[in-house]
Amino acid sequence: MATPRTVAFHTLGCKLNYSETSAIGRQFEDAGYGAVPFKDGADIYVINTCSVTDFADKKCRNVVRRALRKNEHAKVVVVGCYAQLKPQEIADIPGVDLVLGASEKFRILDYIDDISQAPGKGMVKAGEVKEAKDFIHAFSFGDRTRSFLKVQDGCDYKCSFCTIPLARGNSRSNTVESVVANAREIAKMGTREVVLTGVNIGDFGNGTEVIEGTRPKKEALFIDLIRELDKVEGIERFRISSIEPNLCTEEIIEFVAQSQRFAPHFHIPLQSGNNKQLQAMRRRYKRELYAERVALIRKHLPHCCIGVDVIVGFPGETEADFLETYNFINSLDISYLHVFTYSERANTPAAELPEVVPMQERRRRNQMLNILSEKKKRSFYESQLGNTRNVLLEKGKQSGRLTGFTDNYVKVDVPLEATWINHVVPMQLRTINADGLVNADLHSTLV
Length: 447
Description:
14 helices
């Protein structure tokens, strides 16, 4: 059989996965493969999976079927978190040729010839997750507007509901020098915005132990990293993807407040506004600390966008507990929510907890918080009307329109002006349209 020469990729899940898919893609291109769009049909399909969202199995099967409809003779390789957690389950999906775990996925080319010569399907190369010890740098490319830059991987936290430590291993970080070098490479591609990604980016350089006072500082922490990135020429905007509340220090908040490049936007997981639930989840803070962090951000960055992750229906969450979470979030000056319905994950302590919340009740609570999120988002957008903010513009889904985000994450809709695409333009925020986006026009002093 001739060596396949084209490869296509499909990514499920988080920004970190997108950065890693791009890194794997560069390996194929360096080896002489031609990368083609998924819809065009390829000799090899690489599917990068996620385990955080529900229906991982269903989504993976669907993508495999779509790939084989494009080319019934294609070789299908599945990598990512789901591949590490349930490799044999994936190997049994009809059409899957190879499953690679956390420590094998970046050596994918070592296995390609094997599957070309293999008589059957479903080869599994997924070792123990503890073998994933090295940090492999990665960043996404191909989109000139923004790039996802991986700075950290794995997690040492033991939240009772989470499989990520099982899928990605212990916390490990890149070096400041390597991250800065990657940022400069991204700048050369003409990319305007860099989103810093990882599993627990605030733990960069083992920051948790230093911040909690259990060990002295021996290496650069996240605050040191962002100070150096702030000096990188050619990147107009850096955005922090998500940071744990116990690691979102006042030092970091103050730095973002005075930075010209770091966006006034924090996404901080809460998970529950009830201390009993937080303890059962094995989170490393109480709700009081979370409220302090929000107040600090508002003190230093009045216009900042603050996003919140929350889980509903965790075992033992009574109606009173949920209402305490609802009322706590309602009292916070935050901008939007990402609401997750709790789902049992194999090999996690939470899956064994009693007092299981019925699924119908979980969904009802999810709906209530999503409605609250829409109210918070609209209130935040309304508070920004009349202001002039820098907007990174890109082609919209509608013909003749551009969309983009302000530095503080307000989504804007404007008439098409071709010269604005992939540029940061000062725009005056005017009104909220029927789609919930903000209509804006060029700041009057520039007209």
